[in-house]
Amino acid sequence: MKILVPIKRVVDYNVVVRPTLDKMKVDTENVKMSINPFDEIALEEAIRIRESGKAEEVVVVTCGDEKCQDVLKTSLAMGADRALLVECNKDLIPISVAKILKKISEKENPNLIIMGKQAIDDDCNQTGQMLASLLKLPQATFASKIDLISTEEIEVTREVDGGIEIVKLSLPALITADLRLNEPRYITLPNIMKAKKKITEKITLVDLNIEISNKLQVLEIKEPEPREKGIKVENVDELVNYLKNNSEAM
Ligand code: AMP
After folding, report:
1. Cβ of 68: how many Cβ atoms within 10 Å?
2. Does residue 237 belong to any structural domain of this protein?
3. Which of 4, 5, 8 has most ligand 1 atoms within 8 Å of its beta carbon, as the pocket-test mutant?
4. Is 108 in the pocket of ligand 1 (CB under 6 A)?
5. 39 in Cβ contact with 29 (< 8 Å)
6. From 9's CA, which of 44, 97, 144, 239 has a CA 20 to 30 Å away?
7. Residue 114 covered by a domain
8. What residues make up the domain containing 127?
9. pTM score, two decimals?
10. 5 lines ligand 1 (CB under 6 A)
11. Residue 27, number of CB atoms within 10 A of its CB
């Protein structure tokens, strides 16, 4: 059994993002970049399944420029067996990523694809659903628990509005990871050293015979309006009074 984990390189969640001077994109120069947190959870789950003896190989793939090597190295240090970099210097929208990942899936033939439910930079929450649809695979999004019943079937607990939903899927299938699925492990120094010996394969869009067109044009990126300073009230009466007299500010 092989598990494919698509990962995205994003600005670290601790960084306060700023637009570039031309206001056309988010400044990613000289800021800490990391694996998208939901992808880290997806990878942790894939590694746990392999460690339980139910899978033989975990392959990570990212689509982006050469700088993405750092997140691939981190994934290998976490425990992935192999890493693929699909080299692309253009901005990618979810449908483009899904088309690339479709080609990679056809090449790798994984029994299971586990990916993040959304990337924290674009907050799209689209790529997994699009990829499942392009590959005509059953999908379970927002997974908070995964039970591999056999090599044929998998049970997934999903976080939905009304509570939780448990679904059974036949393999191959695609799952997107939610926050509560697991807590990713810390990377140890020996594993960082071991990761250096693991291979990252580079693939070009020409190899995949794919052309990317971007139908989305970003017009402007700006910071949200600063919030007005809050006030502290001593009691409920004071709060009600304040709300009455400042209703237009609400
Ligand atoms: P999104 O639909 O953009 O919110 O992304 C959902 C998931 O798609 C992410 O959590 C990743 O698993 C995957 N993904 C998005 N962009 C990329 C990328 N450039 N390379 C690899 N995987 C990606």
Report:
1. 22
2. no
3. 8
4. no
5. no
6. 144
7. yes
8. 2-225
9. 0.92
10. no
11. 14
Q: Quick check: CB of 64 below 6 Å from ligand 1? A: yes
The finding on whether 191 has its CB within 6 A of some atom of ligand 1 is no
The CA 10 to ligand 1 mean position distance, Å, reads: 10
Judged against a pLDDT cut of 80, whether residue 88 lies above it is answered with yes
Q: Is residue 238 part of a domain?
A: no
Q: How confident is the model at residue 86 (pLDDT cuts 50, 70, 90)?
A: very high
DSSP string, 201-234: EEEETTTTT-------------PPPPPPPP---S
**pLDDT tens-place string over residues 16-53:** 899 999 988 898 888 999 999 999 999 999 999 999 99
The answer to whether the CB of 125 is under 6 A from ligand 1 is: yes
Taking the C-alpha atoms of 161, 167, 172 and 173 in order, what is their torsion angle to the nearest 10 degrees? Answer: 0
Phi and psi at residue 160, to the nearest 5°: -120, 170
Ligand 1 site-directed mutation target among 13, 44, 115, 178, most atoms within 8 Å of CB: 115
Q: Is the CB of 139 under 6 A from ligand 1?
A: no
- For ligand 1, whether the C-beta of 41 sits within 6 Å is no
DSSP 69-116: HHHHHHHHHHT-SEEEEEE--S---HHHHHHHHHHHHHHH--SEEEEE
- The total of structural domains in the chain comes to 1
Q: For ligand 1, is residue 79 a contact (CB within 6 Å)?
A: no
Q: Is residue 31 part of a domain?
A: yes
Which residue, among 110, 114, 111, 113, has the nearest Cα to 151 in the 3D structure?
111
Residue 109 maps to which CATH number? 3.40.50.620
As given in the structure block, the two tokens for residue 190 are: 């020996």
